[in-house]
Amino acid sequence: MSFFGDFKIDGNQLIAKETGAHLPITAEGAREAWRILSFVWLINAVRASRVMKGREPRARISFFPKKPRSYYAIWPVCQLAHVRIVDDPAEADLHFYFEDTEFLTAPRAAPSARPAFNIGCFDIRKSVVSRVFEETFGYSLKIDPATYRGLAVEKSEANGKHDGRIVECPLNSPRNDRVYQRLVDNTFDGREHIDIRTPVVGGRIPFVYLKRRTPALRFSNENHRVDLIDADAMLSRGEQSRILAFAEAMRLDFGGLDVLRDRDSGRIFIVDANKTDMGPPSALSGQEKFRAMRGLADAFAAMVDDALKQ
User: Fold this and answer.
1) Backbone angles phi, psi at 204, to 5 degrees
2) With contact defined as beta carbons under 8 Å apart, do 299 and 206 qualify?
3) How many CB atoms lie within 10 A of CB 31?
4) What single DSSP character describes residue 1?
5) 138 CB-near residues (< 8 Å, 6+ apart)
6) 208-243: string of b/e by CB count within 10 Å (b at 16+)?
7) Cβ 119 vs Cβ 110: under 8 Å
8) Fewest C-beta atoms under 10 Å: which of 104, 106, 251, 265?
9) What is the pLDDT along the chain (310 residues), one digit of tens a residue?
10) Which domains occur in the chain, in start order?
11) What is the model's pTM?
12) Distance (Å, rounded) from C-alpha 218 to C-alpha 162?
């Protein structure tokens, strides 16, 4: 599977053809591209080894309407879980709805009556995430920016924009194309902002990433450090149960959630849901990336086995 063919160069920016994401062409960017490519080669080596040994795959899966590129998490997960990706849906034991868009007016139809993952997860806009979170947890981040008094976050409805900014409410002219939420102090020490990136796979939370950011990078996708942590160390069993209930309500079988813990109240808030999760955060070491993928693959293999039994 081509890696460099997934990108094009525009000036000093590397642009992902699938998502439109812009990556600056810098020395660090080149090193990160090499790290990603090396990781893809490693996963391909594992896959080739299994093929050479003549092992039959655990299952065959087709993706619709698009197949994932190698930099999406589900691609190496399939390789490590020994699930073969096939082009023809008729050859598949399972299907997987995969489309890097946050909103459709209705779910797409699966290619057949065989089990299909993420089939009902067709609307992950911020307002929908906020509504389902409130329904699941019983409390909310949502505010009315015209009447609320205090600091708030203004951000796009779209997924993965990382365009949040702090505003002082009330606002005379709130934007109709933005979502407004109460500002959460997601620091442990008052200085370093921490996102608890929470993978969900078939009703399981295999681990969490602690994504640490400076105040200047608070709303960006850049982390100065990422730790791979056992879920029980960061989330109570009750919180994990609610997170999985949220994922079920969103019809999210495989994906990632951004969870913030408020320093003052101790409560957690789900602020983002992603059904086409990218690979492990770049700040992780190669060894930790592989360990994370192994954890996701084990949970995915269990989800596949459960689906095939039904």
Assistant:
1) -130, 150
2) yes
3) 11
4) -
5) none
6) bbbbbbeeeebeeeebeebbbeebeebbeeebbebb
7) yes
8) 106
9) 444 556 666 666 656 665 555 555 665 555 555 555 656 666 666 666 666 666 789 999 999 999 998 889 999 999 999 999 999 999 999 999 999 998 998 999 999 999 999 999 999 999 999 999 999 999 999 999 999 999 999 999 887 777 899 999 999 999 998 999 999 999 988 889 999 999 999 999 999 999 999 888 888 878 889 999 999 999 999 999 999 999 999 999 999 999 999 999 999 999 999 999 987 888 888 889 989 999 999 999 999 999 999 8
10) 4-123+287-309 (no CATH), 126-274 (3.30.470.20)
11) 0.86
12) 9
Tokens of 16: 């992902």
Q: Are strands 59-65 and 22-24 parallel, antiparallel or unpaired?
A: unpaired
Residue that has been written with the tokens 């019983």 in this structure: 138
Angle, vertex CA 59, rays to CA 58 and CA 62, nearest 5: 150
CA distances from 218 to 32, 199, 214 (A): 21, 20, 6
Q: Scanning the structure block, which residue is given the tokens 């995430």?
A: 129
